[in-house]
Amino acid sequence: MLLCQTLNELLNEQRLEVEAAKTALSAATPEEIVGCMRDLDPRTRVLLFRLLSKQQALQVFEQLDRSEQSQLVRAMEDPDLVRLVEAIDAEERVQLLEELPAKVVKRVLQEIGPEARASVQLLLGYPENSAGRAMNPDYLALPETMNAAAALERVRQAALSPEHLEVVFVLGEGRTYRGYVKLAHLLKAAPETPIGTLIESDSIAVSATDSQEKVAALFNIL
Questions:
Q1: Nearby residues of 204 by Cβ (< 8 Å), 6 or more positions away
Q2: Sequence spans of domains, the chain
Q3: What is the DSSP letter of 43?
Q4: Given pLDDT bands bounded at 50, 70 and 90, which one contains residue 202?
Q5: Helices (runs of H) and strands (runs of E) counted in the chain
Q6: Which residues pair with 177 in a beta bridge?
């Protein structure tokens, strides 16, 4: 592939034309970049990854398989590793950290921000291979008695990205899970409508301690 050949030449230790390499990478797709990374030695692979924009880096990282992600992370210097861990979703952080040596995990947990650290420690608190280890802790949950208008205001105030607000989870007494409401239905509901009456009929729940195999089998049946 011409892109791979170009990057190999530009990132050669004897030449190292960083700006030209950035230009070549900016026009490439994540799939093309991953293909080239697989042909590079570990040092050059990390260098290439550091030249990617934040969005490109996330897209490329998600295209790598688990072992490739682990190899890349092990070759990174601490500042680059911390930035990457903070950028990916919480459940992906846990999956990645599970692949790394304990001393690396300890170092990363010491250096990432308090919010990212709290989400990782929450998920790591569940048994290995449990549903809790794979869940995303970034969600909005509200009491079933809250009306649609108040719920929409909480959505607007939530410090969550839009993709984490497509549904709002509904809680009953004792914070028991009742189901979820789609944001579109909240927008269309009368302001005083209790959100408990808007719960989707196909809503199901599993325990955070259930095995991931059990959860996968349940969703396959559905």
A1: 218, 222
A2: 2-127, 141-221
A3: H
A4: low
A5: 14, 3
A6: 171
pLDDT band of residue 222 (cuts 50, 70, 90) is very low
Instruction: Assign domain 2-127 to its CATH superfamily.
Output: MgtE N-terminal domain-like (1.25.60.10)
Percent of the chain residues past pLDDT 90, beyond the cut: 25
Look up the CATH superfamily of 141-221: CBS-domain (3.10.580.10)
Residues 119 and 137: beta-carbon distance below 8 Å: yes
Counting every residue, how long is the chain? 222
What span, in angstroms and rounded, lies between the C-alpha atoms of 201 and 179?
Answer: 8
CA–CA separation, 176 and 78 (whole Å): 40
CA atoms within 13 A on the CB side of 173: 0
Amino acid (1-letter code) at residue 115? E
Q: What's the whole-number average pLDDT of the chain? A: 83
Distance CA 179, CA 181 (A): 7
Which string of DSSP letters, residue by residue, matches 64-128?
Answer: S-HHHHHHHHHHS-HHHHHHHHHHS-HHHHHHHHTTS-HHHHHHHHHHS-HHHHHHHHHHHTSPT
32 burial (CB, 10 Å; 0-12 / 13-18 / 19+) is middle
Would the pLDDT of 195 be above 50?
yes
